Amino acid sequence: MSAFGSRARLVLGCTCVAAVGVLGLASCANLDGLDTGPADGAADQAAQKDAASEEAVTADSASGVDGVAEAGGDADATVDGALDGTADSEAAVDATADADGSAHDATADAYAPHDAPEESSPLGAADAADTADAADTAADTSSPGDASMDADSEAATGTWCTQQSPAPTFCADFDTPPLTTGWTGTHATNGTVALDSTHFVTPPSSLVAATAALPASGTGQASLYKVIDTSDATVHFEFQLSVTTIDPQAEVVGGEVVVLSPTNTDLYRYSLVLTATSSEIQEEFAGDAGTVNKTTPLNTAFAAGTFYPVQIDLVLPSAAHPSPTGTLHIGGNLLLNQVPLFDGAAQGNLEFDVGAQVFPKVAIGACQTNVDDVLVNLSP
Questions:
Q1: pLDDT per position as a tens digit, 56-104
Q2: Which pLDDT tens digit goes with each residue over 33-44?
Q3: pLDDT tens digits, 262-277
Q4: Per the structure, how many domains does the chain have?
Q5: What are phi and psi for residue 84, nearest 5 degrees?
Q6: Which of 94, 185, 241, 352 might form a disulfide with 12, Cβ 3.0–4.6 angstroms?
Q7: Residue 125 domain-assigned?
Q8: Which residues contact 368 (CB under 8 A, 6 or more apart)?
Q9: CATH code at position 260
Q10: Is residue 363 part of a domain?
């Protein structure tokens, strides 16, 4: 598939922790024994009969108390058994937690960069399970109620961008109006961009980008872009991306890196493109023979309404880097590891785009994405 037409831009796309509590309940009963002394002797026969009767009553009372005490002992034994069962349940929970921890460690090792393949490949069954776990975690942390920081704590400690150390080349967290602060401009053709205070990673807001329903060969753009004049060749570009609405026939570019000529014409594009069921990297190179394209399938779907962390690391051609490469992480998973860039890419000024852009070949419905916490770092 190709989202480009005459132009195209990049789209982005990120575990669930469950806690189990065990409640133990213990109770005990204490009973005091009763002591009775012997009856006084009497001289006459009637008094002796009374004394004998008293002793019989006292013996019966003592026997009743002993019976209650035995019943209390049985109750204590029952409680002890319940406590032992609770302890066994706690041990079982501990064992489960240990197993989960081991599985998590194994998953983390599987996605370490040194274990990743040098060539791009579709996710396998294990990778798909890990991606689902990452989606669960992203869903937990992306809602306003479960965000990693609440509005009060952010007001006290600063926004996500002000907390980055050392300071990045460029940062935008959409938490300080107006929306376009720090950006070079807006692409808005049959689309709109705005602040969204209902769906974000860090409060109080994110970027929401929406494109209208379009006919075939239409153009829909709703994105922010940042142009940086630079000769740096090492690029780190990260952001959080959520696909809220996507037409089944649409290909949405949520974010991209564009290499520009000195006159700001496009030389090379590295774009993340999403569909309703999958995703891919599209590269576009403008050479002497015209514009050529390359598509690399990722086979990774973005669950609707879930923020995914996206990290793009490019090494562009230079004297120090004669072999340009691209590395891609989505949802914490390494999907492409130092894959050679198409046609050697290019070097020049850089443009970074986030939002939603569509260039349909058939009629499509409206599409919408949310973006939060954008960061760019450049180095030689």
A1: 333 333 333 333 233 333 433 333 333 343 334 333 334 333 434 433 3
A2: 333 333 333 334
A3: 988 999 999 999 999 9
A4: 1
A5: -60, -40
A6: 241
A7: no
A8: 208, 209, 210, 211, 243, 244, 245, 246, 356
A9: 2.60.120.200
A10: yes
